[in-house]
Design goal:
Strand content: 5-15%
Bound molecules: adenosine monophosphate, magnesium ion
Radius of gyration: 23 Å
Number of helices: 15
Mean pLDDT: 97
Distance between the termini: 36 Å
Low-confidence stretches: none
Order of helices and strands: EEHHEEEEEEHEEHHHEEHHHHHHHHH
Shape: globular
Length: 468
């Protein structure tokens, strides 16, 4: 059977100034490295047994019937600095399938490429593939990975590296920065068209810009709380990497905590720790304030809108605190937090910080009573555990609560790097193994026990880099 994708491309029907029509640039020798068949099935894609066809389409060498490739315009605040013109510089949206965007990333230059080559190298492509699918399995809203294709070309970075193209699937690629781009140009008509499109597609229950803002705030509050709950550090929470759908997007320099410290930073370009682990809850409020600002021109009375929107953004702070309390008390087995419970979680995190305890393994072993092994000063842990046990006596089935809240496996940075090193040498076996392991992060599988181990000093990843 030949490959068939049931496209219906609503974004390409918006005003032309919101995007540029541009085709993927063909590559020298497309070779399929990975394909997510279950996801393809969910999207109604058929004929995906045609490996050669998949390589051509998802490498950018053949345009599937019904595709209308475009590069989307957006702007954004990068590390707090306004950049009026970003846009898909190395990505094209092939089209939409059953309400999801299919986007090729690393597919060649576009009018938004500036000085970039429009390409991606194998490392970030496989990293995004593994980590985004792992996030999905963890129950965290995220873009998905459909395909990875080797290009047979080299891309020049610090050195010449093998090129690849990732196909990313997202409910939406509309970012805070998409709204900002049009608001900054004072293109009210374009802004209105984008707004109407976003509401119709993602928030049909919503009436007007204030309700839209509140709905996006709620999804982002839930998303960031989920990141915190698994020790995820996005690494580059610029407003152009903040999707209005509330999906995790852009896996450039992301990383997971090994030992817990709230101010952990991995990204090489985040020199001041703006996007450190615990700061993510403040930054998302800042990003939502930028969305609010971009929506003001849609309102008939700007002064009244500023007052209402400011209130909505400010309300995000206590909302995040509530979500944090619910999430982090569940992680210690408490289903309905009462007075003092949040402090109990905070005290555990303080102990973990003081002693450099592993975030994932500490929480994952609370349920089986071996968490104290994660600490060097066990007396300090035992003191905390006495109070904790006393509180748990009032809970119904705290072990079950903890098992559901605490993953056993997260994609640790050193395993991702190890997988990339192997893939560069042509060995895709570690990739396949990680994909298999991270598909069931809450199950204890003996075969994958090595993946639970925190890194030895020699394995430790100190820095992560943007996918450029
Ligand atoms: P990112 O760091 O992936 O969020 O990208 C920030 C901006 O730089 C986006 O507009 C990207 O499309 C663009 N960009 C990143 N890498 C490249 C590249 N190799 N070629 C062209 N544009 C790029
Ligand atoms: Mg980005």
């Amino acid at each position: 059977m030949t490959l068939s994708i049931p496209f219906d491309n609503s974004y390409a029907r918006l005003p032309e100034r919101l995007f540029a029509r541009v085709k993927p640039t063909p590559v020298a020798a497309p070779e399929l490295l990975a394909f997510n068949h279950p996801l393809a099935r969910e999207l109604g894609i058929t004929g995906d047994d045609d490996i050669d066809g998949l390589a051509k389409v998802f490498g950018g060498n053949a345009l599937p019937e019904g595709a209308e490739p475009i590069a989307q315009l957006y702007a954004g605040h990068q590390f707090g600095q306004w950049n009026p013109q970003l846009g898909d510089g190395r990505a094209v949206l092939l089209g939409e399938v059953q309400g999801y965007d299919l986007q090729l990333k690393g597919s060649g230059r576009t009018p938004f490429s500036r000085n970039g080559d429009g390409r991606a190298w194998l490392g970030p492509v496989l990293r995004e593939f593994v980590v985004s699918e792992a996030m999905h399995a963890l129950g965290i809203p995220t873009t998905r990975a459909l395909a990875a294709v080797a290009t047979g070309e080299r891309v020049q970075r610090e050195r010449a590296l093998p090129g690849a193209v990732l196909t990313r699937v997202a409910a939406s690629h509309i970012r805070v920065g998409t709204f900002q781009a049009l608001a900054a140009r004072q293109d009210i008509e374009g802004l209105r068209a984008l707004f109407d499109h976003a509401v119709a597609r993602y928030y049909p229950e919503v009436d007007g810009p204030l309700a839209f803002l509140e709905a996006v705030i709620e999804r982002q509050a839930q998303l960031v709380t989920k990141w915190l709950s698994v020790g995820f550090i996005h690494g580059v929470m610029n407003t152009d990497n903040c999707a209005i759908s509330g999906e995790t997007i852009d896996y450039g320099p992301c990383a997971f905590l090994d030992e817990y410290h709230p101010l952990t930073v991995f990204s090489s370009i985040d020199q001041r720790g703006r996007y450190a682990y615990a700061r993510q809850a403040e930054i998302i409020v800042w990003n939502m304030a930028q969305l609010a600002t971009a929506l003001i021109p849609l309102m008939p009375d700007a002064d009244a809108a500023v007052a209402d929107f400011t209130k909505a953004v400010h309300a995000m702070v206590p909302r995040l605190e509530t979500l944090w309390a619910e999430t982090f008390t569940r992680k210690i087995g408490i289903t309905t937090p009462c007075d003092g419970d949040m402090e109990l979680s905070a005290r555990l995190l303080q102990l973990m910080t003081d002693q450099g305890a592993d975030f994932t393994n500490t929480f994952a072993t609370l349920a089986n009573g071996t968490a104290r092994d994660q600490f060097t000063d066990r007396d300090a842990f035992d003191l905390w555990a006495q109070d904790w046990q006393a509180r748990l006596a009032e809970e119904n089935d705290p072990e079950a609560t903890m098992r559901a809240a605490n993953p056993i496996l997260i994609p640790r940075n050193h395993r991702i790097e190890e997988m990339i090193d192997a893939a560069v040498e042509g060995d895709m076996a570690p990739f396949a193994r990680l994909m298999q392991a991270y598909a069931h992060p809450y199950e204890k599988v003996e075969e994958f026990s090595d993946l639970r181990r925190r890194p030895a000093d020699s394995e430790r990843v100190h820095r992560t880099f943007c996918g450029t």
